[in-house]
Amino acid sequence: MSAATPTPSGEVSLAGLFDASVRTAVSPIEAGLEDLLPAEREAVSRAVPKRQREFATARRVARRLLAELGRPPLAIPRNPDRTPAWPDGLVGSISHCDALVAVVLAERGAIAGLGVDVEPDQPLEAVLWPRICTPREIDAIAATRDTDAGRGRAARLVFCAKEAFYKSVHPTLQRVLGFHEVEVAIDWERRRYEALLVGARAGLPRGVRVDGRFAQRGGFSIAAATLWSGSPPTDGAP
User: Fold this and answer.
1) Largest alpha-carbon pair distance within the chain?
2) What pLDDT tens digit does each residue of the chain (238 aa) get?
3) C-alpha distances out from residue 56 to 46, 91, 94, 95, 190, Å
4) Strands (E), 78-219
5) d(CA 225, CA 174)
6) CA distance linking residue 91 with residue 168, whole number of Å
7) DSSP letter, residue 87
8) 55: helix, coil or strand?
9) How far apart are CA 30 and CA 85, in angstroms?
10) Which residues pair with 105 in a beta bridge?
11) What does 109-155 look like in DSSP terms, one character per residue?
12) pTM
């Protein structure tokens, strides 16, 4: 969703949003085609320069996280559905806005999927709310925020949370979700959210659940989603 993007500051991080086993990083957008491996360059060779910089920065950051996991600096091309083609045995997620890239990466195991989304922490235009939010979400926004700006920021956070959720479950569901197929309940005090699939095609496999957290830092809204296929940490952190 378009909005004027703030300049990233030192306050922007993903700290505390994922389990300790997940590698995370944020970066200003500063790479170019020269930073890409041949298998990646073809994916954006015809893209506009802005898209090329976003793509290249994400891959450069992702290779740094691969090194932290003891993996070689492999190419990360795109799948046919345009999602990142992570190396075997890994799950990850990428998000970017006009000034910032966020990348998360983990070994596949108890963690079956990851999602991250970064958006400017600015009000979402009210005309877009019905497109993004269910009636129950709009009612919750109105009940918990008492200014137009506060309600608009909450609506943008709902959008952000849904995007992170979509990314975390996509490897399992293997289909694109509509905005109204997911309903988000935000716990403002605990800085967590719950996202549930709704409708006739709802449901995740038995024993699978998604934990969501969010933060509003340095002018950005950040949503994190961890899809657990095994037992999550005993402290309840995603």
Assistant:
1) 51
2) 545 444 444 568 999 999 999 999 999 999 899 999 999 998 898 899 999 999 999 999 999 999 999 999 999 999 998 899 999 999 999 999 888 999 999 999 999 999 999 999 999 999 999 999 999 999 999 999 999 999 999 999 999 999 999 999 998 888 888 999 999 999 999 999 999 888 655 667 666 788 999 999 989 999 999 999 865 655 544 4
3) 14, 19, 12, 12, 35
4) 90-96, 100-107, 111-120, 182-187, 192-197, 209-217
5) 17
6) 9
7) P
8) helix
9) 22
10) 23, 92
11) SSEEEEEEEEEESSPPPGGGHHHHS-HHHHHHHHHH--SHHHHHHHH
12) 0.89
Residue that the structure tokens 């994916």 belong to? 43
CATH architecture observed for domain 23-228: Alpha-Beta Complex (3.90)
Tokens of 9: 């500051």
DSSP 78: B
Amino acid in the structure at residue 125: E
Nearest CA to 65 out of 138, 116, 139 is that of 116
Structure tokens of 1?
């969703």
Angle (CA) 215-219-222 rounded to 5° is 30
The conformation of residue 180, written as its DSSP 8-state character, comes to G
The token pair at 222 is: 């950040």
Tokens for 115? 């999602």
Q: What is the DSSP letter of 84?
A: B
Compute CA distances 207 → 102, 104, 113, whole Å.
28, 23, 14
User: What phi and psi, each to the nearest 5 degrees, are found at residue 28?
Assistant: -65, 155
In the block, residue with structure tokens 């994922």: 18
Is-contact 120 220, C-beta < 8 A? yes
